[in-house]
Amino acid sequence: MNGDLEPNRVLFRLPRPGRRSGVRFLGLIMFLVGVFITAALVPAPSYADEIFTSPKQGEPSAWSGWLEKEPGPFPGVTINDEPFDGDDVEQPIEFPHNVHADTNKINCLYCHTYARRSDVAGIPPTSKCMGCHSVIATDQPRIQKLAEYWEKGESPPWKKVHDLPDYVRFTHERHLKKFLFDNPDMGVERVDEVCALCHGDVKKMTVAKKQKSLTMGFCTRCHEANDGPFDCQKCHK
Amino acid sequence: MSIVRNFIQDWSRYRKGIEDGGFHEYEHMWGMVIDLDKCTGCNACSVACYAENNLAVVGEDYFAHGQAMHWMRIERYWDEPNLGDKASKDTQEHGASFMPMMCQQCNAATCEPVCPVAAAYHTPDGLNAQIYNRCIGSRYCANNCPYRLRYFNFYSYYETSWPSPLDMQLNPDITVRDKGVMEKCTFCVQRIRTAKSDAKMDDRKIQDGDIKTACQQTCPTSAIVFGDLMDHESDVHLLWHKHQTKLGTPKQDKKNPELRGYRLYEQLNTEPSVTYLERVREV
Question: Which CATH number fits domain B26-277: 3.30.70.20, 1.20.1410.10, 3.30.70.1350, 3.40.50.1360?
């Protein structure tokens, strides 16, 4: 291959003088007029329209047969309340979320502090537990178990409950920014409602349990309702 | 009135499209420039790619079968006759030239339309993406790639590639691929993704220099430059502009010998995003 393939740049040749050249020229003009009118009538498709015909909010979509959108707890957010019952996860210490988040009203972000500034929400270090529990409720058996780990210098081997597949990337910080920090109707004290969109009502649980399916359909339905990115490589790595 | 508006809109899009080769729809257009005059063939980029992208080390036998997983490979050519010892044909003293080869991220890619499950597709960033969990391993894309830059996992290389303590070095931002999956250079899309996410967190636009690919970061002679071609002040765009490399042409006009830019197999109209700058030889 010598690389000399020049494109054929001559698309139309002007008609040579002849008997029927006027007719041909008129035909060419009519053809061009037709092309321009068609180009004007058909709206210009964007790149995204070619791949994903994502409907606007409120219009019926391909998903709408198996999802009935209901307004969420705060404006702009639509959640999907499909029932899902995850497996029970056996943790080294039965951590009671209801005592911490519901009874004592501790903010989620106090312990899961990495959620607002990194991809993963993270599990707090044992030192954060001991910050309170060196004083509070030291006579409880679970706290004594925690203190044993602390004196040994080990972390309790917590099990992961919401474990996404390896090929999925989910960032907590961007979702929190959209739903919480950039949302004027929400305050940081109501962060548990944002967490509940994907994690279920953790306030009512003792040991955390998966209450949402966290499948790709679960993600895309919310992305569609809230104008999230729809590019494959945004989430698949 | 909508007719007139559509007409003007279409016309302006058409005019704008002529100027930048028809790629004005992209948000970004990641591109690269590799200066072959600076390249010393040290293979550091290849090693960096192995470390960054969880590439499996397949071993000697599989390598001999041509199953190596080097997304970034250095091709070696001899462009001078062997002047020294004739018995040692492979180790000449002079005349080696090197060419780093990675996925060219073609804008009119030949691999994309043949994929039966749309695992290979084009992102709005101008990247030629491969979605691993959608890939079924039909290998049409690799057979249709004119550059032979797609690599197929014929076996579960991950089982033997990283014995026990070594699996801690794996990059968590990218999947460990199993057998039956096609893979290729992604222009370090995990770094692009992270930089974009960080820029969005700070409510700013992404700047030139925010993203460095692993090969660019490692290159000791800075032969590799990476950036956004849509950003008209980025280093990549300035280099493309300096060497008058144009998108949308099957052949670059090279009247001036100082304009060294060319793209691989341009005559196939694949529109690669990587420009190579020719090596300068003393005559």
Answer: 3.30.70.20
